[in-house]
Amino acid sequence: MNDIGLGAVSDRRIWTYAVRNGAVLVTKDGDFADLALRRAARTSVVWVRLGNTTNKALWRTLEPLLPEILEALEQRGERLVEIL
Q1: What is the per-residue pLDDT for 2?
Q2: Which entry of 23, 34, 63, 83 is 20 to 30 Å from 71 by CA?
Q3: What pTM was computed for the model?
């Protein structure tokens, strides 16, 4: 988020940015999962529900799941994908 100037802004502002830019949010923040489940949601969320971990370990977990995540988002149109 820091790379795009959103490092210290509200969840609402991040959500608005994602909607305007057609972005999918990948987050550990449950607030975004709640927003994704609302009827009027216009973006999707990949909710990472793993404990504290390094970025390297996180990517080791996510990388093999990317085909399934993309299928859920693109082909099935899911608004919320949970990674446990």
Answers
A1: 61
A2: 34
A3: 0.86
d(CA 82, CA 70): 12
Residue 62 has a pLDDT of 92
Residue 75, token pair as written in the block: 């082909």
Indicate the domain borders of the chain: 2-83
- Identity of the residue numbered 58: L
CA dist., res. 51 & res. 24, Å (int)? 21
User: CA separation (Å) from 52 to 5, 28, 43, 58, 63?
Assistant: 24, 10, 25, 9, 17
Tokens of 69: 């995540």
8-state DSSP, 40: T
Q: What is the pLDDT of residues 13-41, one digit of tens each?
A: 999 999 999 999 999 999 999 988 886 77
In this prediction, residue 64 carries a pLDDT of: 96
Cβ–Cβ under 8 Å, residues 81 and 72: yes
Identify the residue whose tokens are 């994908």.
81
